[in-house]
Design a protein that fits this description.
The complex is a heterodimer of chains A (about 260) and B (about 260).
Chain A (H helix, E strand, L loop, with lengths): L5 E12 L2 E12 L3 E6 L5 H9 L6 E6 L4 H6 L3 E4 L11 H6 L16 H7 L15 H13 L5 E5 L7 H16 L4 E6 L2 H7 L2 E5 L6 E6 L14 H18 L5
Parallel strand pairs in A: 3-7, 3-8, 5-6, 6-7
Antiparallel strand pairs in A: 1-2, 1-4, 8-9
Helix pairs in contact in A: 5-6, 7-8
Chain B lengths: L1 H25 L10 H11 L3 H32 L1 H16 L2 H12 L3 H25 L3 H8 L5 H37 L6 H11 L3 H29 L12
The structure holds adenosine-5'-triphosphate (ATP) and magnesium ion.
């Protein structure tokens, strides 16, 4: 049974593809408003787990509850905002039309008080680009549009699959600060997939470290750094210590025999 | 750059017609077969009757066939994109339509349906459907999987997905198919008009002229058909500019 304030409850989820056991017996709870990160090497089943949470993929065993209901019900009620690895902007829509896309479908489930997307675009530095087409934007700008598109739903649950993986290090650094900024005023619970230690350490309340083939939760870290988090945090010894302990945990998860 | 894009094509056309004129005048070409373009144009502007009306009829029929084929092709393409079963059932039939020379059966269609514009529309629509069906199928199917997944996450309906993602994604393919179908539709209309036992369209004038070995009216129908095809292609290009501004094919080169 899931606790009362659980946004997401994953219970004993396993996933098998033909001969690969991608996930084995995953149990975890994401609290409402929490920033929860899945950290793991390539092939550890992070995308698969995220897709199972959204109900885009069926688990071989186990169940997923979202706000006490099924993933399908959460999708119908537009309770889930999805940020894919590629920005997945529609090339024929301008920036503001892309941001509005998700509110133009399944309209009966829209929030009553619409999100101010113009202000949000301005906040991520895209003021003046509302009428631009995606091909006129840099990769980082496109990913910012994808973030705003997800936040524009006003959904209480956001699922993000390595949204910054394709960006260079400097842009990633800026993006995680923007993300924290947007998230802190949204109150949404986030499940964030990454294999960047710095991203996990900077963004998260908790980090689950996954092993590879089969993917299992090998450790869950509490990140106690105070909020609101600001870029200067990344220069502190505490941050460095967090990154180090995540790195050790990830090494252990990838190769348990070595330590 | 602007002047080049006007001057170069004009130069190409003038050279082509100049060589043609020269070939017919200097070479020993019998006057019942090929005529120099200057004579054809003079005939069209001075001596002919009925060409504007015939051109209009042929153009209207070809356009109507194109639009019908687009609608039918889109319907088939959507069904085929939705189901592998339907795709595999429809594919051989569409390919048969595509590869069978329609000149071989168009006379039978006239005998079956009767004279007038109906068999003309039927043949021209039929031969254009496969191009539109295949184009819409692959265009609807090749939509960005990440965008489709995004819409699944908010439980968008199949119609909403079709309208917002799949159809716009199919537009470039549909334009390519339309360019290809313009020539096909015009040819099918012209040829079937010739055998349709009526006085309708350029094809009918052409068939009569051929029977009487009258080269001038025959070549006049050729010129008028070419004009129709050119108008159609220019219109398609303009539409493409407007609707596909986002697509890589329509972006102006940086240089
Ligand atoms: N549709 C599928 N069919 C078969 N095997 C799959 C499928 N999807 C994923 N897998 C397998 O499941 C395992 C986990 O894949 P997944 O994409 O979830 O990993 P990931 O942690 O997201 O990796 P990355 O960091 O590279 O994105 C991999 O071994 C992969 O080969
Ligand atoms: Mg992945």
């Amino acid at each position: 049974m899931s606790p009362d304030n659980a946004a997401i409850h994953v219970d004993g989820v396993s996933k098998r593809f033909d001969h690969v056991c991608a996930l084995q017996d995953i149990t975890l709870t994401v609290r409402a408003g929490e920033f929860f990160t899945l950290l793991g090497a390539s092939g550890s089943g992070k995308t698969t787990l995220l897709r199972i949470i959204a109900g885009l993929e069926r688990a071989t065993n186990g169940t997923v509850e979202i706000e006490g209901g099924t993933p399908a019900a959460a999708r119908r009620a537009k309770r889930i905002g999805w940020v894919p690895q590629s920005p997945a902007l529609l090339p024929w829509r301008t920036v503001e039309e892309n941001v509005r896309l998700l509110t133009q479908v399944n309209r009966s489930a829209n929030r009553r008080e619409p999100v101010d997307t113009a202000a949000m675009l301005a906040r991520v530095g895209l003021a003046g680009f509302e009428k631009a087409l995606p091909h006129e934007l840099s990769g980082g700008m496109q990913q910012r549009v994808a973030l705003v598109r997800a936040f524009a739903l006003g959904a209480p649950i956001l699922l993000m699959d390595e949204p910054f993986a394709a960006l260079d290090e400097i842009t990633r650094f800026e993006m995680r600060h923007l993300l924290v900024d947007l998230w802190q005023s949204s109150g949404a619970a986030v499940v964030f997939v990454t294999h960047s230690l710095a991203e996990a350490a900077y963004l998260s309340d908790r980090v689950a470290v996954l092993t590879s083939r089969p993917g299992r939760v090998s450790a869950i870290h509490d990140i106690t750094a105070p909020r609101p988090r600001v870029p200067a945090l990344e220069d502190t010894p505490e941050f460095f210590a967090t990154v180090t302990s995540l790195r050790d945990s990830l090494r252990l998860a990838m190769d348990p025999g070595r330590s | 750059m602007r002047t080049r894009s006007v001057v170069a094509p004009a130069l190409g056309i003038v050279t082509f017609f100049g060589l043609w004129e020269l070939l017919v005048r200097v070479g020993n070409v019998p006057s019942y077969s090929l005529r120099p373009p200057s004579q054809v144009l003079r005939y069209l502007f001075n001596d002919s009757t009925g060409f504007p009306k015939a051109t209009w009829q042929t153009g209207a029929d070809a356009l109507e066939a194109l639009l019908l084929a687009l609608l039918i092709g889109l319907a088939f393409g959507s069904l085929m994109a939705a189901s592998r079963w339907l795709e595999e059932a429809a594919q051989p039939v569409l390919i048969l339509i595509q590869v069978t020379p329609w000149v071989a059966y168009s006379a039978s269609v006239v005998l079956w349906i009767g004279g007038g514009s109906k068999p003309v529309l039927f043949v021209a629509t039929l031969v254009c459907v496969p191009a539109f069906a295949f184009a819409s199928m692959s265009g609807l199917r090749s939509a960005d999987p990440a965008a489709l997944e995004l819409l699944r996450c908010v439980d968008a309906s199949a119609w909403e997905t079709l309208w917002h993602v799949r159809l716009p994604n199919a537009l470039p393919n549909l334009f390519t198919a339309a360019r290809f179908a313009v020539g096909l539709s015009l040819a099918a209309v012209y040829f079937t008009e010739g055998g349709a036992l009526s006085n309708r369209g350029l094809g009918a004038i052409g068939a009569k002229a051929l029977a009487a070995t009258a080269a001038l009216p025959l070549w006049s129908t050729v010129f008028c058909s070419a004009l129709l095809g050119t108008i159609a292609l220019v219109s398609i290009s303009v539409l493409e500019r407007v609707l596909l501004g986002w697509h890589a094919s329509q972006r102006r080169a940086a240089r």
